[in-house]
Amino acid sequence: MIQKHYSLKENNTFGLEVFAKYFSAFRNADELKHLLNTFPNEKLLILGGGSNVLFTEDFNGLVLKNDIKGISVKEENEEYVIIESGAGEIWHEFVLYCIDNKYAGIENLSLIPGSVGASPMQNIGAYGVEIKDVFHALTAFHIASGEIHTFSHTDCEFGYRESVFKNKCKGQYVILSVQFKLSKNPTINVSYGAIQDVLQEKGIKNPGIKDVSDAVIEIRRSKLPDPVEIGNAGSFFKNPVVSEELAQQILNAYPDAPNYPAPNGSRKLAAGWLIEKAGWKGKRIEDYGVHVKQALVLVNYGTATGDQIAQLADQIIHSIQEKFGVTLEKEVNFY
Q1: Which of 4, 173, 290, 331 has the most other CB atoms within 10 Å of its CB?
Q2: Structural domain boundaries, residue 19
Q3: End of a domain among 66, 86, 110?
C-alpha cells in the first residue's frame, strides 16, 4: 500500500519527525519493480532499519522500506556454511540466529543496529571484525534496467566503512539478499576492546561464540544509548586514518592516544577519543548533544531537529580540525 505524507519518525533511529511525500514497503523484487514503475520520476530513498540516516528536512519523493525476509542455507560441509538472508532481516536477529545454529564469524558484530542489507553497503565492523571478513556474495536490483545482478567479494570493493554501493554505484542498486560464509570451527576473537575483561569477570576461560556475543552485547549496552529511549544513529563519525607523521605529532602531545596500524604505513585514530579530548563528551545543547558515555554518538533527547544535529556535527568536525589537524568524516547519511 502506498501512503502519502507519511511520518518517518518510527523509521529513523534518531526519532526525527519528518514526512515522506510517498511511502511503501516491498517484500520481493517484483513488488520493488512495480513501485519504481509507478513512481518513475520521484526522488528515491531505500530504507532498511533507518539506523544510519539523518533527516534534515521532509523527504520530497518516494521512500521504500526494504522488507525482504527469509534465511536459508545455500551450501554446507563440515567446515563452513554459506547462509543467505533477505536484506530486510534485522541484523542483530540474524546474528543471534547464526549463533543459535553454531555458525561462527559474526558474533563480534552483535547488537549493531540496522538491517542485513545495509551490512555490506557500510562494511559494518566492530571489535576486530568487519563484514568483508565473512561476506560471500549478494544480489541487487539494478534500478535503471530492472535486472538483478550478483556481486562477489571483489565486486563490492570493500574499504573501511566503505563499499562500491557508497561510491561509484551509489543510488544505482537495491540490495535484495546477502550471503555469508561462516565457520563451523570457530576462531574466537577477543583481542579487541573490553571483550577479554568481561569474559574474565565472568570466569569464562574458554569462550564460545555465544559467550563472545553476550560480552559484546553487555559492552555495547553499557556504553551506547538504546534508540528506543534516546534518539541516535550509533557511531556518527568514522575513526580517522592519518599519516604516520600526524599520528606521531598527536602521540607526542598525548602519549595515551589510542592508535592502530592502517594500510600503507598510516595510523587509525579513535574518533571518540579525539571528540572527548576536545571537550564535547556529554555536552548538551537544548534537546540534543553528545552522549555522556560515548563521544562518538550524537543524540536527540526528544524534540531536536535533524538540522540542529547536523550543525552540531559540523561544529565538532571544525573543533577536531583546529585542535588536532584531523578531519573527521561522517558515517551517517544525510537527507
Answers
A1: 290
A2: 3-66
A3: 66
